[in-house]
Design brief:
EC 3.8.1.3; 2 domains; alpha/beta; single chain; seven-stranded parallel beta sheet; PGP-like_dom2
Amino acid sequence: MTSLSPSAAYPKAVLFDLLTALLDSWTSWNHAAGSEAAGRAWRAAYLRLTYGCGQYIAYEQLVRTAAVEVGLPESAPLALEADWLKLRPWRGALDTLQALSPHCKLAVVTNCSIHLGTQAAKLFPIQWDAIVTAEEAGMYKPDPLPYRLALGKLGVGAHEAAFVAGSSYDMFGTAAVGLRTYWHNRVGLPLVTGAQPPEVEAPTLDALVPWLSRFGSAQNHAIPPVKA
């Protein structure tokens, strides 16, 4: 009997939301806003704007519009951009990427500009196989186009890949594309109304590699959505 290689059960590629699933942008937004409450309100307004606009509008403009919407001064978005390179990975993010690198192609699909997305992705000392931004795709997630652009760059089908979300808005897009999804719900947000539940929801990345290591097994396909 021929034995399977160690990578046989992994997906061929894993796509990551960058600014929420891998990087702690929550702290940066809160700091720029002056408090956690103001930062969360600002971030929620921004997410609604990106979900609603679809076609790419300059990321920086949407951040400023969201700040105005919640009553923040012009200094808040300026502070966020000034501290961009101070974004910090979540605990376990780099270890997770390094553990997956021998088994899967790794890509970023992020809702920001090419310049800021590339800078943020390079905060991780790894070789990304693809970095796709909303600006490059011409559309914001959860439109299917950014996910499909990444899959095309990687040369894999949706059934051969997984997505790691940072926001449940992503589930609208991954459901449309057919990507099985792990939601790294670090701050305990509720599922957005109408979004399809992810296959796994967890407050950390700890369960990601075990889940992906069984990705191709019939047993893993049979597992209903769970909170890890």
